[in-house]
Specification:
Largest sheet: 7 strands, mixed
Helix content: 25-40%
Radius of gyration: 20 Å
Number of strands: 7
Low-confidence stretches: none
Structural class: alpha/beta
Number of helices: 8
Distance between the termini: 36 Å
Shape: globular
Order of helices and strands: HHHEHEHHEHEHEEE
Mean pLDDT: 90
Strand content: 15-25%
Strand order of the largest sheet: 3-2-4-5-1-6-7
């Protein structure tokens, strides 16, 4: 769902409504929010903040980047990944999703909630939900992807589940070379180790990434961590 105007203009609209109808400002704010499809003004503001965060991260991603997006379950990393793909497609770029977590119906529902209809997806979006996800599959499917394509892998640890595939470190190294050569942007959703304690530090970091097997996290160029509706972005991990 997209707002009809920036939050500051919507707030100004609410002030005008409050004056013209003689109602409290909070009631006017909620009425404006209802017109945008939100039950309360606070929900509209939360949505706008999320859109701002997505736009901010996308603006910091360059062709060939590898972004590690980490969060505990329920903290919004999947939604954030979809937001990045949606923002890219609105800008005329292509996007792809490699997942065993989302069905085609799930994907359609998520994009519809962001104001993108399925009919608009076909030219610029592809879903890959094969029984396995590996570096070889990703590079094959993206071989002809135009530079600037956003490809989301849901999630990093899926690359490490098949013993008949190369080691996780080898696969990520292959994907790093591929991203740089093709100019695509790879986003890896990542699980966080259960030992992470949000009361001890506000965001997880690289030390909290769940890694059953060794992986040089320096292969990623950037990282983003989510917790309790907030975000921390790290620009440059080398």
């Amino acid at each position: 769902m997209r707002l009809s105007a920036p939050v500051r203009r919507l707030r100004h609209r609410a002030r005008q409504l409050a004056r013209s109808e003689g109602i409290p400002l909070h009631a006017a704010l909620d009425r404006v929010a209802a017109g945008e499809g939100f039950a309360r003004w606070s929900l509209l503001v939360a949505k706008a903040s999320a859109l701002d965060r997505v736009s901010g991260v996308l603006a910091h991603l360059s062709h060939g980047d590898m972004l590690l997006l980490g969060a505990r379950p329920g903290q919004g990393k999947t939604l954030f990944g979809f937001g990045l793909m949606a923002a890219a497609m609105r800008a005329g770029r292509s996007a792809a999703l490699f997942t065993l977590e989302e069905t085609a119906g799930d994907v359609i529902a998520r994009f519809r909630a962001m104001g993108i209809e399925p009919s608009a997806l076909e030219p610029r979006f592809r879903l890959e939900d094969a029984d396995e996800i590996s570096a070889s599959l990703i590079t094959a499917k993206l071989a002809s992807a135009p530079p600037g394509t956003i490809a989301t892998i849901d999630y990093l640890q899926l690359l490490d589940q098949r013993r008949d595939k190369p080691a996780l470190s080898e696969q990520v190294a292959v994907l790093r070379r591929f991203a740089r050569e093709r100019g695509v942007i790879l986003i890896f959703l990542s699980q966080i180790d259960r030992s992470y304690d949000p009361s001890a530090k506000p965001f997880p970091d690289l030390t909290d990434i769940r890694l059953p097997n060794p992986l040089d996290l320096g292969l990623f160029s950037k990282a983003c961590f989510l917790n309790e509706g907030a975000m921390r972005f790290e620009n440059g991990l080398h």
